[in-house]
## 1
Amino acid sequence: MDFRSDNVSGAHPAIIDAIAAANHGTAAAYGDDDWTRRLAQRFADLFERPVTVMPVATGTAANALALATFTPPWGSIFCHAGAHINVAECGAPDFYSGGARLVAIDGAHGKLSPAAVEGAIQREGDVHANQPAAISISQATEIGTVYRTDEIAALAEAAHRHRMILHVDGARFANAVVGAGKTAAELTWKAGVDALSFGATKNGCLAAEAIVLFTPPSPERPSELALRRKRGGHLLSKSRFLAAQLEAYLTDDLWLRNARHANAAARRLAVGLERALGVAPAEPVEANEIFIALGGAVANALRAAGFLFHDWPGIGEGGARLVTSWATTDEEVDALVGAAGRARGAS
Amino acid sequence: MDFRSDNVSGAHPAIIDAIAAANHGTAAAYGDDDWTRRLAQRFADLFERPVTVMPVATGTAANALALATFTPPWGSIFCHAGAHINVAECGAPDFYSGGARLVAIDGAHGKLSPAAVEGAIQREGDVHANQPAAISISQATEIGTVYRTDEIAALAEAAHRHRMILHVDGARFANAVVGAGKTAAELTWKAGVDALSFGATKNGCLAAEAIVLFTPPSPERPSELALRRKRGGHLLSKSRFLAAQLEAYLTDDLWLRNARHANAAARRLAVGLERALGVAPAEPVEANEIFIALGGAVANALRAAGFLFHDWPGIGEGGARLVTSWATTDEEVDALVGAAGRARGAS
Amino acid sequence: MDFRSDNVSGAHPAIIDAIAAANHGTAAAYGDDDWTRRLAQRFADLFERPVTVMPVATGTAANALALATFTPPWGSIFCHAGAHINVAECGAPDFYSGGARLVAIDGAHGKLSPAAVEGAIQREGDVHANQPAAISISQATEIGTVYRTDEIAALAEAAHRHRMILHVDGARFANAVVGAGKTAAELTWKAGVDALSFGATKNGCLAAEAIVLFTPPSPERPSELALRRKRGGHLLSKSRFLAAQLEAYLTDDLWLRNARHANAAARRLAVGLERALGVAPAEPVEANEIFIALGGAVANALRAAGFLFHDWPGIGEGGARLVTSWATTDEEVDALVGAAGRARGAS
Amino acid sequence: MDFRSDNVSGAHPAIIDAIAAANHGTAAAYGDDDWTRRLAQRFADLFERPVTVMPVATGTAANALALATFTPPWGSIFCHAGAHINVAECGAPDFYSGGARLVAIDGAHGKLSPAAVEGAIQREGDVHANQPAAISISQATEIGTVYRTDEIAALAEAAHRHRMILHVDGARFANAVVGAGKTAAELTWKAGVDALSFGATKNGCLAAEAIVLFTPPSPERPSELALRRKRGGHLLSKSRFLAAQLEAYLTDDLWLRNARHANAAARRLAVGLERALGVAPAEPVEANEIFIALGGAVANALRAAGFLFHDWPGIGEGGARLVTSWATTDEEVDALVGAAGRARGAS
């Protein structure tokens, strides 16, 4: 029973089926196929307006390509200290942008505030300093919280005031949409978001993400994102298999059904652990992640019983991160809660 | 009937089956899974010695990462003017290496010669000039020929004499192995090759290539390739699905069976066209590509009849590139040959 | 007696005097000083219109910064195979642009032609290939010839037709102005030039060049060149000493007087050698460089007599490059001619 | 009277004299001249051992080139939050290293501690994170303090334990040597320093710094620093004028005499202001910079009286940075102290 991450789960059967279904006959390579072409309309429907959509196979690629398209080499990208781009991508945004600088900022609940960003802007307009280029937030955040639309709008307003763009790392965007009870449009361009890494892998795909631009890159370089993707080695030859995943992901709301399932599992787990241990999660459980101080004895007992999860020091003894996914079952949740309760009783 | 490229074909059913079979239970992300771990032994068996093997999803990524690992920003990479890295990757090697320079060299039959490379080395040891770092050859070449082992060994010898490495872009490596009648080991490290982009996508995978190093990177930076891959956004989270493809590809010689099929189809096509048109291919057909001057009328008639292929100007009127794959049927080949014969008769 | 290059000469005394004269009192650092401020007007006068002018200490920096400002990482820069940026800057344009690619083209008399450039453009608009960004020519060329204004205008027209800019590496711009008998304006923006590396070091400065833009960079990034210069480490703190050199260089036409002197010395040398050896220079002597096949015996004799110059293989036996400068004296020229004549008589 | 920075002062007359003296005859370009060659011995004498020494024209270039030589693109460079490389070089180290990341750390008195650095190292050995490559300290620091040799040794020990190098940004190295009362050797390699940006411009040169390596770069790339310098456009053609400055700077201890003068002026200013205002500097005055809360009225009065200095918010009302140089006179110091005393009396 594996709560290490949502990406330890496999792909939803509908995704595998879609890949198999796409595996008939020949199709033009490098995105010039019907599946990829249909994505434009699919994402236009999803976001209630035309968008630029470009599929890639990893979230790191989506983030780095999206940010590089708007960030010159001398730019600064403001993000939360715990942001995936800051701590878990081996400097991919730095690489793709040609050496732009990430400015890591702390903030409660894994969130950036406009004031904190503006406080971190230094020497704007001064040739000796990196210049503001982008704010990047994670939605859902890395600690399982979800930005409200007014929080996003305030960040977008701050970004645009300083001629920056607002990027959203949506590796868990579906979980955020479900958690916020808002539409994809409301959580993005309607609140001022310029670019989104639309994650799908963690929520049931095999390997598929989409870069979604609401604001086009420089009019002088209309193909910039496509060129950057190819140059980065992220244009798949048999592109239909990437598009087919995304198409199935959006069909019949699979993406929302998966996310609802994962979020519900997280809530069930949070409620169960609080009841069993008398300990509330360290952060609001608004998506599919729980951060909780299990206590050392309980944490050890769970590990001994075969439950897999990551340590999360700093929130108390036996601090743990528990992540649920589209594939997490009630039985798994209840088994963990039960084991935790027994361990606590024994201690 | 589609002869545009081998990457217009889908994936071999055994590859889809392997993906579906891997889709059970959870698995550690980012390559720390059983499927990925097994690749080390699989590739050691294949190459008859331990190697570094690192799967990625695209050939461009494989080439750029392999080359960047051995090429400093001020390095030169010597390649054929028609090399994929030179004309079809939007500068990916330049990007990944931090701005190294490709030196494009002409050569008969799509091949580099040691003399041509050495003639192109300028100002070795001179701080004003880019310094030799790598020779990169395509095997099979971009025009369907195959380097012999002695040709490879001579290039390796030249490379090492100038402290360069020899890299092989093996997007069609299986076709070369079959075409050459040699083992994978004989065509690589036994002939002095330092690094190989081991292609699998064109020959039946969905999206899977392997970077194979026979010579380790700098001892001071043992993890360089792994770090570069992550930083480039090419480390897949659900890595098992990449490894499962490669595993199935090597199982029961699927890779060789597919390549034998494709190469045989190309030969059948070449023989048929020569008989039907009285025109020999412009280059020896040693792998799965044919370059032939069909004549304008025949080319037009084939297009009108629905046959898809790329124009290849410069080899005569109606110059065409015809590529076969693991999925090309004798019926398709014979249909094209028949249509060509009829078109010629009519003209 | 040293004919190796114009940069083996020291600085003109007026330049040293100007530096000493600027060395009084304090001045704001990093270009916010009176000397630097005055350059805007000086260069506006010189070019008969407002320009962006930015001093740096080396020609390589000027070229790389100017080109990077207009060339995205996936861009191509078309230049002559013998261009300084291609063979003598260790890949500086590649580095500054983030990995753009130089496309080296041959051409008679060290010059590019529009047809040759257009023939080298491949896959324009194709995401798999580097995209046209700039044409860069050297004026005077690396072999001592000078582009006529109509030749420049034709290249500019070709550049702009493909949405490229035309850059001039003017390391020997003064020699070209004198050689062409045209104004600085006529040789640049009036003929369609977008950016100029205005050289001064070779022609009498200590270390001073100016990047001159006639076309501004992207309106979205008005400070791009200034930021790139700082980021490249090319913004001098005691900037007044750079500006003072350029100011003195332009005062009382010192730059033209120096170039006239150097060009005249080259002509005197060419005429003298032709008379003494019966051999004409291999290229028209339009600036301050002579390329001539001295014959092996003469070349050896000159070397033995202490004359310094570079071998220039490929133009005949005893091929040599002889460069004159603002400091070359008639005595030095005549001594070389005399020695050559004697050596020929003796052989 | 200008206390804005030490780089608002001109060059020491001996430096101008040395340039003028070097301006005779021709000399091979690009560092192959006698002046440049002599630097090896000069710096060997200075540091009591052979070193690699490479002159450049700016401190930003020295820092960026030195750091890039030891920092791979995926490396981390640990520095103080106030470090020049972090706040005042527009990302030059990021650019030269190919996108390495600066990790900014706070610390009392402008200094890094080993514990703070080790606390900032995250995910060492983890492919998802930038990997430790260098610690960079400023000596003297940006707030006028000086690292003691035991502090340096402790940092070097921490650096080497994590396979990092220790770099010193010595823009004010002379002031530190004087302030610490130690030799150049004691403050560098004897304490474990691997690379030094040896500043000279701020302390009396026109534009001259030297990169000094005590630890060679990778044995596989012995010329790496030289190639990086050329590629960055920092190899001057008339290199003798750079070397002549450094030679004069070291002759007869000019560098130490200048620094002693500047440091003494700073102390005189500190003592005077403390006496006049009853306010001690915010930081120990160990080199040539004073940070002091003048009070708003005094600050305003000084500005009105024509004294130039930079605001330094955060240390109290009227916070100011006052910098002295080799050219600061006792009269200037006393005038400022007198004006401050009068302003205080009036308020």
## 2
Amino acid sequence: MREKVASLAKRRGFLWPSYELYGGVAGFYDWGPNGAALKRAVVEQWLRLFVIEEGMLELDSSLISPREVFEASGHLAEFSDLLIDCLKCGNSFRADHLAEGLHPNPDSLEAAQLEKIIKEAGVPCPECGGPLGSVRPFNLMFQTHVGPGTGREGFLRPETAQGIFVNFPQLFRLAREHLPFGVAQVGRAFRNEISPRQGVIRLREFNMAEAEVFFHPREREWTGEMGRYEDTELKLVPREGAERTCTLGDALETGLMHNRAVAYFVALTARFLTLVGIDPARLRFRQHLQTEMAHYASDCWDAEVLTSYGWVELVGVADRGDYDLRQHQERAGTDLTVFVQYPEPKELEVERLTPIHRALGPMFKGEAKPVAEALKASDSTAIKPDGSAKVVITDAEGHKKMVKVPKECFKLERVKERMTGERILPHVVEPSFGIDRIVWTVLEHAYTERKAEDGEVMTVLRLPPVVAPITAAVLPLVNKDGIEELAMRIDSELKSEGIRTAFDSGGSIGRRYARMDEAGVPFSVTVDYQSKEDQSVTIRWRDTQDQVRVPITHLAASLRELAGTD
Amino acid sequence: MREKVASLAKRRGFLWPSYELYGGVAGFYDWGPNGAALKRAVVEQWLRLFVIEEGMLELDSSLISPREVFEASGHLAEFSDLLIDCLKCGNSFRADHLAEGLHPNPDSLEAAQLEKIIKEAGVPCPECGGPLGSVRPFNLMFQTHVGPGTGREGFLRPETAQGIFVNFPQLFRLAREHLPFGVAQVGRAFRNEISPRQGVIRLREFNMAEAEVFFHPREREWTGEMGRYEDTELKLVPREGAERTCTLGDALETGLMHNRAVAYFVALTARFLTLVGIDPARLRFRQHLQTEMAHYASDCWDAEVLTSYGWVELVGVADRGDYDLRQHQERAGTDLTVFVQYPEPKELEVERLTPIHRALGPMFKGEAKPVAEALKASDSTAIKPDGSAKVVITDAEGHKKMVKVPKECFKLERVKERMTGERILPHVVEPSFGIDRIVWTVLEHAYTERKAEDGEVMTVLRLPPVVAPITAAVLPLVNKDGIEELAMRIDSELKSEGIRTAFDSGGSIGRRYARMDEAGVPFSVTVDYQSKEDQSVTIRWRDTQDQVRVPITHLAASLRELAGTD
């Protein structure tokens, strides 16, 4: 199956390994004409759901980021795989790959544990049989330098998400300072795999679509109407308990899913994947085990699909909490909290930090006044374990910065206050889509075979019309009596209406239908002798081979309606 | 003007400098919600013209490329700027920038000349006033490493074009082995500028749209109908002679433009730029001087527009000849020539290489037979200056490779042959578009001001509806009597039809119109009391403030028709 799809993908210009002219580079694929169009259409459907329908803001941020971003995000410290080198040939391997079969879940082990297992089993180098060295972490970000000399360190982003977090102040303002709001981003991301395998499933350069949805920490409820998806059937594999199929409504009611925002995006994900051609019967949502979650996540459900590679993760819907904003707030020294008004003002007894001016003055000099103001506006949450307080002030140049205030400079007092609202750091729920994997799976799930009358086996690629690279083939029945000219005119009119067509006048009409079926073209428009008489053509539907006759004047509109792109 | 547009761009979420949270990184910009949508729409129009209408193949190839690609393309040797360091503070500068005012065209000078001029004028470091060092070239490609250890050297592509050239064999096959054919690619490219300035005009990370069009070297005529653009008026600045405005037809007839393929794409470029909102009165096409052409080009016309930065190059239409394919053919040792049939077979006297088997056998052993066959199929062009011949053979594993055959292994003979065609290396014409610059210029050219009745000056961003980020605002006249609910229902129906809308119920209707005018929203749909009675709404056109009333049932279709997106 995999070989058939890969062969079709290359033959029909969907995708193929990059740089074959130079012997190839593992982990890179190029998208050919049909693949680029299919990928674009899948992304367009995603944007239609997330940006247009759900009303999220779109962002297109830089791929190269400075070091600070990934110091804050934790990627510099955490985004690594364990590597082992051959001491003889110098090749490097993923240590967990070499421990496969030696442990039920080598992916979950630490360096020392993996090294012990590999040593004890006497695993040799898979390339040359030589002895292996020790296990060490290898950071998976591609590094570069910005500007001349050693310049400023830069990294190619491993996810699009950080571009959204570092732009949070701008984006919150553009969302009119209301929670919740979502920001969507589509684009390239990079992961310098040690030894990529599994074709397009694990690439060093790939395409993602991510949404970061910002919530009030106590109100994880998206603005979308949950009722719309109440009856959506989902196959769920919870962290504890058995796999089951139930509606989203049931999953929420029984507490199987308790995070309502995560649940909403799980349902939206199911709708999206089905829309672009993933077989719902081969789709399940699996909750991450505590041990397998990324360093920033507190809960995560993966959309997994059954492919020729087994169950593959296509989408992760993760609760990132306030991890990222908090990290950037610390690293950048900029207050990223937002003010949220209460529905009604509250009378609250609060702990306030009262400045002790005789201590503050000598210590902070010209900044004593803003520090005192900041202390008065803080509560006990500003106090750190060592008794000091961290507050944010605005310095003389108008820049915000964080200041550490020793405990002798203030005292903690309980006061009654009328509060109109509070400052909070938003929490984030993130649906994150691997576009290349999704498109590959769409190809696998669309791949079918049909036996022709003469017994020949023909490939039919049942891509949903809404994502098919070519919407319609235009086929003159014969190449004489003005039929071909009429077909060419029709073809160029459809093109100028923005409809993607393929003109094909070579070979028997049966062979041409077969070629179009294999390329996933949903509709074939045939121009025949009757077309000259009454200005009509037939439209053939790939999946049933049914035909209808329509007037040429209605052809573009009919195709748009049939394709669902009107 | 520039400040007004930059301020509007940031305020309304079009674009802003990246990484402000961390103090910024020069040469990087992020596209916000309105900007991402505007850029996407501009790209969509480009694809519609180049891929759908002109029938080019689309490609989406990898951003990271191995060293071999840029060894072949010449970028490793040639793609550099001249740099000068301060010996005191260590900052680096573009040497030609420091020579501005000291020479009419410092950009055209060699390192030694620039150094002389700078030294003689005693130019100090612009940062600290310290003394400057010597001038040296700095390669503008971002470098990285693929895989662990020192890995394999990789570079971020400086243009999308090389991805097309290295895939030429695949793409030629997908074009059904016919010339001419075109391949289009849209995506990120990178240029590690020494000291970027001029905002979005010179970025380190940017977006390009490029088409590489492959021709028979003696037939530079694209398949598109030239007649369509015969009357297109162009302002031309030829290499020799004065600037003039004439039609494309005149330019061709008078020999002002002699390369017909370049001429065709110049006209198509003018159509595209005008379509997305560039003012044709501020557009000209300038032919490159011999000294300023890129290392691969033999002729080039730039589309230049007048902006607040002066005349800026947005598009280059270059004749790259067979430079790139020839370089890759040499570097990869793979024959990239294609067979082109003559209209009719020809009887030709040709020089053929006759193998001398007694010399060939001992030297090539098992490969003597394929080498002999390859010699017989070669003509005198295979002979190198040293008298040896280079031929391509297929080895035992089916790989093609180039073989050097010493002169004692063959003799050159004149024979008469009936030829059905010939092998040629295609030539390339390349229209190359800088998308970020184009979008910025669209913003500048769309920026206008209107005086309100009370004398207040309002900004109106006259973006063409076909690229406007938001197609329609939905505005309830009042927020009571069910008007707001009706407006919300209309808004969500338009969204689910895929129309980009903005709902706004805050403030007077006049203020809301003004907000939408500033954001470039072409149509405002107002829901009023009459809407409840007869299910109709008004549509207001941003540029004239005219209003029409339409039934709600026809609203989506009317908006699509007005926006030209139906």
